């Protein structure tokens, strides 16, 4: 039998669900407040009002942190689908009223910033000028977190085969993950390198070279790529700057492996050659969103445009 105070309809709102979901994700009120862009006292006051409405506690103190009660877990379980459904309803109502407008918050990895993202923004501005797209640059784990915490509607991400830190596994649980295309990973060599004239290069032939590594996940891929070829790379330099990688290779400081988008962004300067690996190595580009995101017209239009822009970036056409 329900308590007397629950004998009426519960007055829940989407903001309450966002707050509870953020606490579930981050484990503390302070971290949840930071993720949502509110002060800690504001979140605490909102929780008190929520608990007064539902007639039971949503959180409980555990040491220096908090955890959700059974009631809080119920709210968290429904948070993402409910918020997505509300956003979808708002979008459809806007379409029905003839208001051709909308907002999409996009997050994407660095090598997409000077390549896919500008083309997307330009194409959307031409075809759907009423849709406002905001953009932040973030590595895949942070981009997925932004979608989960409702700080982004869509995230462009990437994954490598056998990636132990793939952000599309546990951290993307409950989200929608769609593969857009595959992107070839290319070896970057000095023009005077003995293998520069080869059509393809066996990675094992570079076991004695110094390597230039990139971001942590790219570095992890390099280690796995070389491990599959029977050696541990000697990493001499590390930088996330694609132009710096090209300059270092041109100066003869080492060799590198870069995705095609990074090469497209940086360009291939004099003194550098780009070659595919003999085993043809690829990473996959994904788009991540909430399960109901596609029902929001502005987001659906953005997803359609992303699909159009990445069509043709397949194993045969993605070459430097």
UniProtKB/TrEMBL annotation:
Domain HTH lysR-type: 12-69
Alphabetical list of Gene3D superfamilies matching this protein: Periplasmic binding protein-like II, Winged helix-like DNA-binding domain superfamily/Winged helix DNA-binding domain
Entry keywords, A to Z: DNA-binding, Transcription, Transcription regulation
Listed InterPro entries: ArsR-like_HTH (IPR011991), LysR_HTH_N (IPR000847), LysR_subst-bd (IPR005119), WH-like_DNA-bd_sf (IPR036388), WH_DNA-bd_sf (IPR036390)
Keyword Transcription regulation assigned: yes
Keyword DNA-binding among record annotations: yes
Family: Belongs to the LysR transcriptional regulatory family.
Record's protein name: LysR family transcriptional regulator
Organism of origin: Microterricola pindariensis
Lineage: Bacteria, Bacillati, Actinomycetota, Actinomycetes, Micrococcales
């Amino acid at each position: 039998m329900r308590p007397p105070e629950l004998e009426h309809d519960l007055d829940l709102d989407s903001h309450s669900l966002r707050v509870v979901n953020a606490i579930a994700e981050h484990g503390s009120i302070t971290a949840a407040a930071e993720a949502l862009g509110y002060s800690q006292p504001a979140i605490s006051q909102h929780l008190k009002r929520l608990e007064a409405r539902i007639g039971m506690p949503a959180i409980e103190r555990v040491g220096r942190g908090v955890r959700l009660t059974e009631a809080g877990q119920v709210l968290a379980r429904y948070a993402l689908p409910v918020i997505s459904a509300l956003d979808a309803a708002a979008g459809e109502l806007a379409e029905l009223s003839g208001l051709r407008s909308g907002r999409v918050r996009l997050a994407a990895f660095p090598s997409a910033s000077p390549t896919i993202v500008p083309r997307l923004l330009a194409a959307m501005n031409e075809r759907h000028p009423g849709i406002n797209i905001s953009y932040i640059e973030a590595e895949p784990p942070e981009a997925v977190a932004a979608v989960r915490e409702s700080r982004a509607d869509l995230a462009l991400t990437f994954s490598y085969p056998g990636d132990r830190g793939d952000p599309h596994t546990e951290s993307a649980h409950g989200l929608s993950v769609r593969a857009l295309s595959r992107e070839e990973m290319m070896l970057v060599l000095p023009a005077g390198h003995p293998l520069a004239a080869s059509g393809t290069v066996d990675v094992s032939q570079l076991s004695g070279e110094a390597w230039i590594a990139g971001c942590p996940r790219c570095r992890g891929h390099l280690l796995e790529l070389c491990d599959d070829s029977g050696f541990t790379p000697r990493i001499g330099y590390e930088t996330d700057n694609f132009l710096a990688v090209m300059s270092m290779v041109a100066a003869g400081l080492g060799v590198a492996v870069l995705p095609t988008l990074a090469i497209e962004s940086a360009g291939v300067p004099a003194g550098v050659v780009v070659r595919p690996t003999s085993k043809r190595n690829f990473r996959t580009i994904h788009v991540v969103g909430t399960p109901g995101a596609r029902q929001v017209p502005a987001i659906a239009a953005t997803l359609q445009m992303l699909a159009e822009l990445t069509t043709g970036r397949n194993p045969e056409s993605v070459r430097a």
